[in-house]
Design a protein that fits this description.
Elements: H1 16-32, E1 36-37, E2 43-45, H2 46-53, H3 58-63, E3 66-68, E4 74-77, H4 82-91, E5 102-110, E6 122-131, H5 136-152, E7 159-164, H6 168-182, H7 191-199, H8 210-216, H9 228-243, E8 249-250, E9 264-269, E10 278-284, H10 288-291, E11 299-305, H11 306-312, E12 324-329, H12 334-347, E13 351-353, H13 361-371, E14 375-379, H14 381-385, E15 388-393, E16 399-403, H15 407-412
Helix pairs in contact: 1-5, 5-9
The protein binds adenosine-5'-triphosphate and magnesium ion.
């Protein structure tokens, strides 16, 4: 038997109602907050990601699905959404209008990681990007949307972690101090972190290896090195969150480790997900546009991992569907009449099904039960001759005779 590729997951019919629900909540809320949907391709030139995400990140170092196109150009399956959105915004001049500066997306991302619970090689994200706004209250709006998304889905026990990583200049001084502090104890850190010490020292704060986490508890704290501007911005964000009664925890280890990230960084964690506890994360990326040769444009966004969200939702949280009508036709004239009726009911906008192989009423009603039909509409030869059908409530078993001409109108009220 052929199987799917390692780290990829099918979303089965039993699970799709839950996914549809999550996507509806995402679309509805993002729209309420003034974001418009953008749909970008799932692959781009490799250069876009290499340049924007940064050469020393996990993603670019080892997680990208990169392949050569037939003309030899290097392409990469999108590992995240922001780079592609910024590329599209620049290409289509979306910054020119205030109606296209707040964007959201939903869709699959691809990273070659070690598959485990909550970590897959194809996974889905809901993300938003607010472009061109420097004001601290937009940071608050973005986090409010993220929190409302989770609370609308009924998720509990979540923590909003927040930090400010200042500007590139603020960090220069801090990184110097951090390296100085870590130098004598470098040997105690994991191999990755020993390497990061020279390539991207901020990422050490973010390492998930226990001994590294322990060590970073003692390091100097980034917010002690913020400039006045960054400090004022951070305080305004915290005040804004408090004004909306959004609880947060300041987390000094929360960094995004890339040059173009600046000031606000945040993530939301759940205690119910084991090692993969982060369900959503984001931050400001005020210099990304310039990295991609665009105009200087402050920006902030987040991305939510939807597989992790589904892991937190109760299995049986299915959305209620409209009633299902089972059309049970049998006999030489009943069967064809039932078939056209089935089509009419569907055209009238209702959910209907049948069993073409069922030839007796008993067999057909059994099929109706198996499909979970709410009503059966029975058309045998007698009914066909008198232009009627029997409408049977599958739960109460109460039956009534209905004229075929009126039936779609009658059942529309069910
Ligand atoms: P992690 O620390 O878990 O590797 P990350 O920092 O790589 O996360 P981001 O790039 O910030 O993650 O992506 C935002 C969200 O997307 C994460 O918080 C997570 O919920 C989800 N996510 C990231 N990678 C995966 C994956 N391989 N499988 C499933 N979900 C993922
Ligand atoms: Mg990762």
């Amino acid at each position: 038997m052929l199987r799917s590729v390692k780290g990829l997951k099918d979303i089965l019919p039993q699970q799709t109602p839950q996914w549809q629900h999550i996507e509806t909540v995402a679309r509805t809320l993002a729209t309420q907050y003034g974001f418009s949907e953008i749909r970008i391709p799932i692959f781009e030139f490799t250069e876009l990601y290499a340049r924007s995400i940064g050469g020393t990140t996990d993603i670019v170092e080892k997680e990208m699905y990169t392949f050569l196109d037939r003309d030899g150009s290097s392409l990469t399956l999108r590992p995240e959404g922001t780079a592609g959105v910024v590329r599209a915004v620049l290409e289509h001049k979306l910054l020119d209008s205030p109606t296209t500066r707040k964007l959201f997306y939903l869709g699959p991302m691809f990273r070659h990681e070690r598959p485990q619970a909550g970590r897959y090689r194809q996974f889905h994200q809901f993300g938003v990007e607010a472009l061109g706004i420097d004001h601290p209250l937009i940071d608050v709006e973005v986090m409010a949307l993220l929190c409302q998304f989770f609370s609308s889905l009924g998720l509990e026990d979540l923590t909003l972690h927040i930090n400010s990583i200042g500007t590139l200049n603020d960090r220069e001084v801090y990184i110097h101090k951090l390296k100085e502090f870590l130098s004598p104890i470098l040997k105690t850190l994991c191999g990755n972190c020993q390497r990061r010490h020279s390539t991207n020292p901020l990422r050490i704060l973010d390492c998930k290896v226990p001994v590294c986490q322990e060590t970073t508890q003692q390091t100097p704290i980034l917010i002690d090195y913020l400039s006045d501007n960054s400090r004022t911005h951070f305080q305004a964000v915290l005040d804004g969150l408090s004004a909306l009664d959004i609880a947060y925890t300041i987390n000094h280890r929360l960094v995004r480790g890339l040059d173009y990230y600046s000031r606000t960084t945040f993530e939301i964690t759940s205690p119910h997900l084991g090692a993969q506890s982060t369900i959503g994360a984001g931050g400001r990326y005020d210099s990304l546009f310039q990295v991609l040769h665009g105009p200087s444009t402050p920006a902030i966004g987040f991305a939510v991992g939807l597989e992790r969200v589904t892991l937190l939702l109760a299995e049986d949280q299915t959305t209620k569907k409209s009633p299902l009508f089972f059309v049970a036709g049998f006999g030489d004239t009943g069967k064809p009449k039932a078939f056209t009726l089935l089509y009419k009911i569907r055209q009238a906008g209702m959910r209907a099904d049948t069993d073409h192989k069922g030839n007796t009423l008993k067999a057909l009603l059994r099929s109706a039960d198996k499909l979970g039909a709410d009503y059966s509409i029975i058309v045998g030869d007698n009914e066909a001759d008198s232009n009627t059908a029997i409408l049977r409530n599958m739960q109460t078993k109460v039956q009534e005779i209905v004229n075929l001409e009126e039936i779609t109108q009658r059942i529309q009220k069910k």
